[in-house]
Specification:
By secondary structure, this protein is an all-beta fold. The protein has no helices and 8 strands. It has a 5-stranded antiparallel sheet with strand order 1-2-3-8-5, with no helix packed on it. Strands 4-7-6 form a 3-stranded antiparallel sheet, with no helix packed on it. The mean pLDDT is 87.
């Protein structure tokens, strides 16, 4: 556990690391996420359309009042911004590949 934070690969806003033979840990920051549902490509390849994952999202701006929902499907991360304005979000995910 003490070395878990070391040696991440950077790709755009993504930071990711393989933590076992079939799991990755990922962090990303998205700026100006529009209202409604939008998606972003993952920085890694997954083996199937449906991926086991844990996705935690947190707003990093000050304007939003409602939470965001997020999930991974079809090799993409989907975000549903329920606010009326564009917001910034930090995402943490553990993804099975």
């Amino acid at each position: 556990m003490e070395n878990l934070y070391k040696d991440f690969i950077k790709s755009g806003n993504w930071y990711y690391k393989q933590i076992s033979s079939n799991f990755y840990m990922m962090f990303v920051w998205f700026q100006d996420v529009p209202q409604g549902e939008t998606y972003y490509n993952l920085p890694i390849s997954t083996s199937s359309e449906y991926t086991n994952s844990i996705v935690l999202s947190a707003q990093t701006g000050t304007g939003g009042e409602k939470p965001i929902t997020s999930y991974i499907k079809n090799r993409k991360i989907y975000l549903n911004n329920q606010n009326k304005t564009r917001e910034n979000y930090s995402i943490f995910a553990i993804v099975q590949v």
